[in-house]
Design goal:
Largest sheet: 6 strands, mixed
Strand content: 15-25%
Structural class: alpha+beta
Number of helices: 12
Length: 402
């Protein structure tokens, strides 16, 4: 299936700054916060929330009454009669919600979709599952965020173990991880140049953080919060987290909080909703894949191949590549397998540097990919990222003139 009936209106997307967990966004209910942000961003663009005939909401960490799914935040932001559904697909959620919204439009089920992804890793829920017939009647419990990062449901391993397995398979060294991490930090500095000019293309800055009840201002964020200053000397001093490993605290991402939104619609409506009607943003292809057990960072290689095949293009046709890279290992392995230039990927930022709120992580990367392509004057771009369960999703976008 092609996606010739779907476009992203240029500029019809936004992201909050990301905040390292237990930071400036820790007190905000993820669903209510995402609705609050979307309501303000739609108003800034003069978009009527009642104009959406479908909505997709992506989130991975439970929030109070998240049982109600997408209809709740849609109503909160003013789309009071818009149906929708919620998707949770760990770190692939950002790409998955785009696919879901685009598919509805392509199939003729809707004309205009609001896609939102949100998460709060801070203050993650402690969940108790009753087991009346268990020993002593005791149930099971989990700290949803931290426990699942450390205990794969299938193999019982940590996410870090998957990175080290891929490092061994592709013969990746700590020194290579450090060099890529340093490069990613340098690329992120380009997004901060000229008063954060690149980030201001899609992010409202300074960002006024609301109080927990959304009545009044709690604080102000100038940009992403919790980004670690990175130097070659500092990375060299860090020891691998696992014995005989390659990954240090410096060459892996950190949990974060935030949300991202994006509009999908028909080509005709896209012209009216775009901040620059002369720029066209199309979805060319999607792909998904699953690697061997405990080899999560390898999964994007196959998913990217499928997305490129779906789009009918080759990796050499791409003008830009963005990845969700919880570990520097991800990018090194991808470059080894595909021939991509590892130092040219992820211009202006990536999750390795600005953090990982899970649900919205990939969606922010897609937004940045669009803006990078626009700055280049157009072209094809690939987003790819791994997800727990040794899985991955990838998508190809094209930015061009009309």
């Amino acid at each position: 299936m092609s996606f010739d009936r779907v476009e992203i209106p240029y500029g019809a997307y936004w992201s909050t700054p990301f905040a390292k967990w237990q930071g400036s966004l820790q007190h905000l209910h993820a669903m209510k916060f995402a609705a609050w942000v979307a309501k303000h961003e739609l108003a800034r663009r003069g978009v009527d929330p009642q104009g959406f005939d479908t909505g997709v909401f992506g989130m991975t960490n439970n929030q109070y009454q998240s049982f109600y799914g997408a209809p709740w935040p849609l109503h909160e932001l003013g789309a009071t009669h818009t149906p929708g559904h919620m998707i949770t697909q760990v770190c692939a959620t950002g790409a998955r919600v785009v696919f879901a919204g685009a598919s509805e439009i392509q199939l003729g089920m809707s004309q205009q979709a609001l896609v939102i992804a949100a998460d709060r890793c801070s203050n993650g829920p402690h969940i108790y599952y009753p087991a009346p017939k268990g020993p002593g009647g005791y149930g099971q419990s989990e700290d949803q965020v931290t426990y699942n990062m450390m205990n794969d449901a299938i193999g019982g391993h940590s996410m870090l173990k998957t990175a080290e397995n891929v490092a061994r398979k592709f013969q990746i060294t700590k020194e290579e991880n450090d060099e890529v991490t340093l490069r990613r930090y340098e690329q992120y500095q380009d997004a901060l140049a000229d008063g954060r000019a690149f980030q201001r293309r899609y992010m409202t800055l300074p960002f006024n953080v609301p109080k927990h009840n959304f009545k009044g201002e709690d604080t102000v964020m100038d940009g992403d919060e919790g980004v670690f200053e990175t130097t070659r000397e500092g990375l060299a001093r860090l020891k691998p987290v696992m014995a005989d490993g390659t990954v240090t605290f410096g060459s892996q991402t950190h949990p974060a909080d935030g949300n991202v939104g994006l509009i999908l619609t028909t080509p005709e409506r896209a012209r009216d909703l775009a901040s620059d009607p002369g720029i066209r943003v199309r979805l060319r292809g999607f792909g998904q894949a699953r690697a061997d057990l405990e080899y999560m960072p390898e999964a994007p290689i196959a998913a990217s191949g499928k997305a490129l095949d779906h789009a009918g293009v080759k990796i050499t046709d791409l003008a830009a590549i963005k990845s969700h890279n919880p570990f520097a290992v991800n990018d090194v392995a991808f470059a080894r397998a595909t021939g991509a230039d590892v130092m040219a990927m992820n211009n202006y930022g990536c999750s390795l540097i600005w953090g990982h709120p899970q649900g919205p992580t990939g969606l922010r990367a897609v937004v940045e990919l669009i803006e990078e392509l626009a700055l280049k004057g157009g072209g094809l771009g690939l987003f790819q990222g791994c997800a727990a369960g040794d899985s991955s999703m990838a998508l190809v976008v094209e930015v061009s003139g009309r």
